[in-house]
Amino acid sequence: MKVHNIKDVEKFFSVIEQCKGTVELVSAEGDRINLKSKLSQYLSMATIFSNGFIDELELVAHEPEDVERLIKYMYQGI
């Protein structure tokens, strides 16, 4: 799933933390980074989120309820 126009990085990670299963960030090279890991979150923030705005990310959520949660976040900001 592609996520677009993330302006509030803290809210984004709050939604990730609410997910029950693994949520992975897929890099341009195809690597998968577990966003539920605090270490991965800090590393991601230092590189991808350094400008405070994210144009587009590709995520893989392993639980259907997590996919719904992320879609709700994308469309409603909740």
Compressed to H and E, one letter per element, the order equals: EHEEHEH
Mean pLDDT across the residues is: 85
Q: Which regions have little confidence, pLDDT < 50, spanning 5+ residues?
A: none
Largest sheet: 4 strands, antiparallel
Tertiary shape: globular
User: What percentage of amino acids are in beta strands?
Assistant: 25-35%
Instruction: Return the structural class.
Output: alpha+beta
Query: What share of residues is helical?
Result: 40-55%
Provide a count of the helices: 3
Over the alpha carbons, how many angstroms does the gyration radius reach? 11 Å
Q: Give the terminus-to-terminus CA distance.
A: 17 Å
Q: Give the strand order of the largest sheet, numbering strands 1, 2, ... along the chain.
A: 1-4-2-3
The count of β-strands is 4
Organism: Lacrimispora xylanolytica
Protein name: Polya polymerase
Description:
The chain is α+β, with helices and mostly antiparallel strands. The chain has helices at 9-18, 38-47, 64-76, and strands at residues 2-6, 23-26, 32-34, 54-61. The chain has a four-stranded antiparallel sheet. A hairpin with a 5-residue loop joins strand 2 and strand 3 (32-34). The chain is globular and about 30 Å long. The mean pLDDT is 85.
